[in-house]
Automatic annotation (TrEMBL):
The entry's keywords: ATP-binding, Nucleotide-binding, Transport
Protein name in the entry: ABC transporter ATP-binding protein
PANTHER family recorded: CONSERVED COMPONENT OF ABC TRANSPORTER FOR NATURAL AMINO ACIDS-RELATED (PTHR45772)
A Pfam cross-reference name: ABC_tran
InterPro entries in alphabetical order: AAA+_ATPase, ABC_AA/LPS_Transport, ABC_transporter-like_ATP-bd, BCA_ABC_TP_C, P-loop_NTPase
SUPFAM superfamilies: P-loop containing nucleoside triphosphate hydrolases
GO molecular function, one term: ATP binding
Domain ABC transporter: from-to ranges: 5-253
Length: 260
């Protein structure tokens, strides 16, 4: 089931630095939502708050109505949250398959004791998740890479492995932090097709942080623009791209005036 997300007055301060200030917005279940804004606007920090890597200084974050702010990442993963990172965070010495399998961990029944004892029902689930991981890699045209160490893959494929790892957890809410960064034109096209396919085949809510406006326009139903830690506006990607406040935030007031 796709999850909803609701942020109310989320602020994040590091010492005197106000990274996020009173950010509020709602994401309906099943939508593809864009989070955009210039470098340093606070997009990754906001993802870190949602995924439990940062604890907001104030405000509330709820997933399907359950208060999530301040919960550890492992608990949020069990609530159906998965994410990728701006800089891929893979186990580089482990194989591609082992990296993807990490995403299936939250679906294993029981707990550390039954996992360590490898009880029959745990082993059965492990086998099923492994089969699913191999199918995911196969569909992505990556079956050939399953047993290669992750560090032998290109940057583009690292991004892909992170996405497959996140999807193996069968998330209800998926956060993608700059999934197109550093990808070739062809890889971006493939990514857009993959996310479109996800939307039709799975009941999932997706939030994408991205500077690639072509991708944001192609995929998102709605966007929020952040600037200097504050919400500047929300609307469709087209509305954001033609909003003078957004143009000013990206290129500076003088340049925006010259362009007008
Ligand atoms: N742990 C931290 N300690 C201190 N400052 C931080 C911390 N994390 C983020 N910041 C600051 O918060 C601000 C927003 O950073 P953030 O990485 O969230 O921006 P961003 O919108 O993701 O930018 P980009 O598009 O470049 O990825 C920056 O000024 C950054 O230095
Ligand atoms: Mg960032």
């Amino acid at each position: 089931m796709a999850a909803s997300l609701s942020l109310k007055d989320v602020s994040l301060h590091f010492g005197g630095v106000k990274v996020l200030q009173d950010v509020s917005f709602d994401v309906e279940p099943g939508v593809i939502f864009g989070l955009v804004g210039p470098n340093g606007a606070g997009k990754t920090s906001l993802f870190n708050c949602i995924s439990g890597h940062y604890r907001p200084s104030s405000g509330s974050i709820s997933i399907d109505g359950t208060e999530a702010s301040g919960s550890p990442p492992a608990r949020l993963a069990r609530l159906g949250l998965a994410r990728t990172f701006q800089h891929p965070a893979l186990q580089l010495n482990a194989s591609v398959l082992q990296n993807v399998l990490l995403g299936g961990h939250t679906r294993l029944p029981g707990g550390p004791v039954s996992w360590a004892l490898r009880l029959p029902y745990t082993a059965r689930s492990e086998r099923a998740i492994r089969t699913e991981a191999l199918e995911l890699l196969d569909r992505a045209g990556l079956a050939w890479a399953a047993d290669l160490p992750a560090d032998e893959l290109s940057h583009g494929l690292h991004k892909g492995v992170e996405l497959w790892r996140a999807l193996l957890s069968r998330p209800a809410l998926l956060l993608l932090d700059e999934p197109a960064a550093g990808l070739s034109h062809g890889e971006v096209e493939q990514l857009i097709a993959t996310v479109k396919r996800l939307r039709t085949e799975q009941d999932i809510t997706i939030i994408i942080v991205e500077h690639h406006m072509g991708l944001i326009s192609a995929l998102t139903d709605r966007v929020v623009v952040l600037d200097h830690g504050r919400k500047l506006m929300s609307g469709t990607a087209a509305e954001a791209q033609s909003d003078p406040r957004v143009i000013e935030a990206y290129i500076g007031k003088d340049a925006a005036d010259d362009a007008a």
